[in-house]
Design brief:
There is one protein chain. By secondary structure, this protein is an alpha/beta fold. The protein folds into 2 domains: 3-61, Arc Repressor Mutant, subunit A (Orthogonal Bundle); 74-248, 3-Layer(aba) Sandwich (Rossmann fold). 34% of the residues lie in helices and 20% in strands. It is built from 9 helices and 15 strands. Helix 4 (74-84) crosses helix 5 (100-108). The longest helix has 15 residues, at 3-17. It is globular, with a radius of gyration of 18 Å.
Length: 249
């Protein structure tokens, strides 16, 4: 495989999943870790992604300094967000994890809605500042630089005291047979706690994440109540998920 082809695959993986590990990329491309490290450095120097310890993140993942064109599949994520806010009603307690799609959800929540919103994401919390009828409760704890949400015992303990009406669970990888998966163990524990803390689980995910998987399982696919993509619910790509009795939006 040519270097340029490797670079394109790496960029696609980073843009779709926001974060990638060197080990996963080496396995995907069947090359050495040293080769992947060199590729990531070249792409970092070219300002096409950001090199972090053990992997890379997309430029658009740093929402506090990203320009619009840096956010991958932004139109699809906005479309998902428009669908997601249809689930909201006055008086609900909601739980929003991090991720670029959930930031779009937060942006579109109507200011007139009276909600209580718990979130471990600084980016999501910031979007709530101009919504006077929404009480925002930031879930504190150790802030993960790579995932940009709080993690660890303090955050998980806070979640154990909550029972939200609905949780919008940021989704890295989703598979009809393997469920929702992640590669970051601390994020897995946070998302497991968020599921336990909620009555209804919604997975907002661009369709390019469908049928992908990572090393650590968060939950079975049947644990998801609603899957929201930019696709029409009758799209053939969603057939396997429909067969799992998941509501599709």
């Amino acid at each position: 495989m040519l270097k340029e082809e490797r670079h394109q695959i790496i960029l696609n993986e980073v843009r779709i999943h926001n974060r990638v590990l060197l080990t996963n990329l080496a396995e995907l491309l069947d090359v050495s870790l040293d080769t992947i490290r060199r590729d990531i450095k070249v792409l970092h120097d070219a300002k096409k992604l950001k090199k972090v310890h053990g992997g890379a993140i997309s430029l658009g993942f740093n929402n506090y300094n990203a320009v619009v064109h840096d956010i991958y599949a932004l139109d699809s994520k906005k479309h998902i967000a428009k669908k997601a806010i249809q689930l909201l009603k006055d008086g609900q307690v909601i739980l929003l994890s991090g991720g670029t799609t959930n930031v779009e959800v937060a942006k579109l929540i109507p200011p007139r809605l009276q909600l209580t919103c718990f979130t471990p994401s600084l980016q999501v919390a910031i979007q709530m500042l101009n919504k006077p009828h929404i009480e925002t409760i930031f879930i504190g704890g150790k802030l993960s630089n790579n995932s940009q949400i709080t993690v660890g015992g303090l955050a998980i303990n806070t979640l154990s005291q909550i029972k939200a009406d609905i949780c919008f669970l940021g989704t890295n990888s989703i598979n009809s047979s393997e469920g929702i998966t992640e590669f970051d163990w601390e994020i897995v524990q946070m998302k497991k706690a968020m599921i336990k803390a909620s009555k209804k689980i919604v997975s907002p995910s661009i369709s390019e994440k469908l049928n992908s998987s990572k090393r650590y399982k968060i939950c079975e696919i049947e644990d998801i109540d609603i899957l929201i993509t930019e696709l029409n619910p009758t799209d053939v790509k969603l057939k396997e998920f429909a067969n799992k009795n998941i509501s599709l939006l």
